[in-house]
Amino acid sequence: MKFLIDDCLTVELVSEAGAKGYEACHQVRIGKSGWLDWNIVQYAVDGDFILVTNNASDFRQLFGMQPFHPGLIIILPNVDRAMQRRLFQEALATLAQAGDLANRVLEVGLNGDEVTFNRYLELLANKARKSRNCSPGGSLALGLGGSRGL
């Protein structure tokens, strides 16, 4: 697995991924700062990168329109750098157990002191919304919901 870290998150996440043996790059360090979201999605898909962001609303929609994508990790709360690193470490630990994120989204959040996870198949969620007229904010959870204490 390799990761593309969005410029809305700390560049320190590259080191966190590297410490676990994963390849990672940060949008700013590869000269893509200020790119529009759809450019970032295309770069991630073409390069087989899992995108890590906290821009949930835009990237859920853009990744949901892709016929295939390597995966999306959303760090939901807008937190400081130290907490971003902690939540990303938890996401990496979860991925080590759960495996492939292809066409899936892993949301990492906080509920008090508990780290929470929601993993779902984005394409399936978009098709379900179209076929069942679900609300745009809904998602179809596929099993890896859970939480861990900090």
Q: Could you give the count of β-strands? A: 7
| Count of alpha and pi helical runs | 5
In the CATH hierarchy, the architecture is 3-Layer(aba) Sandwich
Q: Kindly provide the radius of gyration, computed on alpha-carbon positions and rounded to a whole number of angstroms.
A: 14 Å
Supply the number of structural domains. Answer: 1
Strand content: 15-25%
Instruction: Output the structural class.
Output: alpha/beta
Q: Characterize the biggest β-sheet.
A: 7 strands, mixed
Mean pLDDT: 84
CATH class: Alpha Beta
In short:
The protein has helices spanning 12-19, 37-47, 56-64, 81-98, 122-132, and strands spanning 2-5, 23-26, 50-53, 72-75, 104-111, 114-121, 146-149. By secondary structure, the protein is an alpha/beta fold. The protein has a single domain (2-149), classed as Rossmann fold (3-Layer(aba) Sandwich), CATH 3.40.50.
Structural account:
By secondary structure, this protein is α/β, with parallel strands linked by helices. The chain has one domain: Rossmann fold (3-Layer(aba) Sandwich). The protein is built from five helices and seven strands. A seven-stranded mixed β-sheet has the order 2-1-3-4-5-6-7, with helices on both faces. α1 links the parallel β1 and β2. The longest helix has 18 residues. The radius of gyration is 14 Å and the shape is globular.
Write the layout of secondary structure elements.
Elements: E1 2-5, H1 12-19, E2 23-26, H2 37-47, E3 50-53, H3 56-64, E4 72-75, H4 81-98, E5 104-111, E6 114-121, H5 122-132, E7 146-149
Parallel strand pairs: 1-2, 1-3, 3-4, 4-5
Antiparallel strand pairs: 5-6, 6-7
Helix pairs in contact: 1-4
